[in-house]
Design goal:
- This protein is mainly beta.
- The chain is built from 3 helices and 17 strands.
- It has one domain: Beta Barrel (Porin), CATH 2.40.160.40.
- It is about 5% helix and about 55% strand.
- Strands 1-2-3-4-5-8-9-10-12-13-14-15-16-17 form a 14-stranded antiparallel beta barrel. A two-stranded antiparallel sheet has the order 6-7.
- Strand 11 and strand 12 form a beta hairpin.
- The longest helix is centred in the first third of the chain and has 8 residues.
- The N terminus is likely disordered.
Length: about 300
């Protein structure tokens, strides 16, 4: 039986409500999504894959996937990247697809690097009205038996989008700021406008060697229209293993486990819901995989890559 998804209907057709981007917990395993200035800031070429399942115990859960690739191309100063992202809500009732091309340039000043990144995105959002059910489809004794007679004005939107970011880092610290959706593309499925609000993201952290460990405290602040998110995390890194614990204010505790080899990084995280929703939501699960391809060019082997949590 088809499920009633009133929330999705409101988000899709109202010109008075605004959409919100997916949020990830493993931000540094998904660097291009965090800030386009991360493109080309690794000591290796990176192929990254990420998966997030938000509140799996609630019908119509939100599932997000993405895949990315980035590298340096000229004398460790120019970086390029590509990022593809899909967000599925309401068992495929609303699907958002993005594909982005990213370019960055790094200024190297002794032990400090400043990276500037720009991102061009093709943004595609579709809405499947056939997955919705309405009150007039209900028979008092037999339940939902009547057809959905709704005629949508529009079933998809397809628009360009642009973002930019800045990132500074040294051997033991990093900080960045990004602005996504600079042109605020219109996502309305009906009459009127429904602009996608600009997403502002600030991130900062450090890598502190203590004995045989490395401790990494991080902070991320995100603002998009009326939505605000603050996340503090602490990672402990020893040998090839990373353990992390964090807190997303008024929402969830975040537990992370990562493992790294020379060419491979894998990570898993679980969000334990602490808000009024309770953990009946099933929390959230996230997995990441990165494949690292070493540079062969003598000009790129000594790239001064960013030192941040890796898993």
């Amino acid at each position: 039986m088809k499920k009633v998804i009133y929330l999705l209907l409101l988000l899709a057709i109202s010109s008075n409500l605004f959409a919100q981007d997916p949020a990830f917990s493993q931000n540094y395993a998904n660097p291009l999504y965090l800030n386009p200035a991360f493109a080309g800031t690794s000591n290796n070429q990176r192929i990254g894959m990420n998966f997030r399942d938000q509140w799996p115990n609630i019908p119509g859960t939100i599932v997000t996937y993405n895949i990315s690739y980035d590298r340096n191309i000229i004398d460790s100063s120019f970086g390029i990247g590509i990022l593809a992202n899909q967000d599925r809500a309401g068992q495929g009732t609303m699907i958002t697809d993005n594909i982005s091309l990213i370019e960055s340039y790094q200024f190297h000043i002794k032990s400090f690097t400043l990276s500037l990144g720009i991102e061009g995105t093709w943004h595609y959002k579709s809405f499947n009205y056939s997955n919705l059910t309405f009150g007039y489809q209900i028979d008092p004794t037999r339940g939902f038996i009547y057809n959905n007679n709704e005629t949508p004005l529009r079933t998809y939107v397809s628009v360009p989008d642009f973002s930019a970011g800045i990132l500074g880092y040294g051997k033991y610290y990093f900080a960045g700021f990004a602005m996504n959706h600079l042109t605020q593309p219109d996502e309305s499925f009906a009459t009127g406008a429904s602009p996608l609000p600009i997403r502002y993201t600030f991130n900062a952290g450090g890598m502190i060697p203590i004995g045989g460990f490395t401790i990494s405290p991080t902070y991320i602040h995100t603002q998009q229209q009326d939505f605000t998110e603050d996340v503090v995390e602490l990672y402990a890194i020893k040998w090839n293993v990373t353990l992390g614990i964090g807190y997303r204010f008024q929402d969830a505790m975040i537990f992370t486990l990562g493992y790294q080899r020379k060419w491979l990084r894998i990570g898993y995280s679980y969000d334990y819901t602490t808000s009024s929703l309770g953990n009946a939501t099933g929390g959230s699960q996230e997995a990441s995989l990165a494949i690292l391809l070493h540079y062969k060019s003598p000009k790129l082997v000594k790239v001064s890559g960013i030192n941040c949590p890796a898993f």
